[in-house]
Amino acid sequence: MTERIPVSKRTRFEVFKRDGFVCAYCGAHPPDAVMECDHVIPVVAGGTNDIDNLVTACMACNRGKAGVELSSIPSTVAEKSIELEEREAQVRAYYEIQAQKKDRLEQEMWSVADVFMERFGDDSIQRTRLASIQMFLGKLEFFEVLEAMELGTNRKYSRGAAFSYFCGVCWRKIRRNNGEDI
Ligand SMILES: [Zn+2]
Predict the structure, then answer these.
(1) Taking the model in full, what pTM does it have?
(2) Could you identify which of 43, 45, 72, 91 might form a hypothetical disulfide with 30, taking C-beta atoms 3.0 to 4.6 angstroms apart as the criterion?
(3) Adjacent-strand bridge partners of 50
(4) How much distance in Å is there from the Cα of 61 to the middle of ligand 1?
(5) CATH class assigned to 9-73
(6) Ligand 1 centroid to 60 CA: how many Å?
(7) CA of 36 to the centre of ligand 1 (A)
(8) CA 108 to chain centre
(9) Neighbours of ion ligand 1 (CB under 5 A)
(10) pLDDT tens-place string over residues 34-52
């Protein structure tokens, strides 16, 4: 049997961060689940500990023991405290990533809103319009939403018409991304 070399904590966290601390199989994340690294190509089949061969998986999915009691796995007190420490680090890192995501989304929202406000020389924008921009950013890539806003504001439209045009372009992109006929 192939010798299994444990994945270092550093490598594990690199993989977790890349995957957003979300289990590739069931979508679980901290604090509800403890994350592990699963080998895409199994070690027995020659898979390495290279991050390209690793994917984030919750303990239940990785060990094929859905619903297993997390505390039932470590066998010694020392193992248990190491695991607890890492579990806390995972929860902290997960929330940090969520906060960064929120900041980024907010920045993106204002970048799109700025295009609209600059076009009309406004220094404010309706709350409902901001909410629409945010909603589209949740469904599309930033550059797609920005592009839609540039299309909407490139014409000699009124504010209302420009924003409607922007929304129309976004919905078309969403339907196209979903593979619907447009
Ligand atoms: Zn899972």
Answers:
(1) 0.66
(2) 91
(3) none
(4) 4
(5) mainly alpha
(6) 6
(7) 10
(8) 15
(9) 23, 25-26, 28, 58, 61
(10) 999 999 998 888 999 999 9
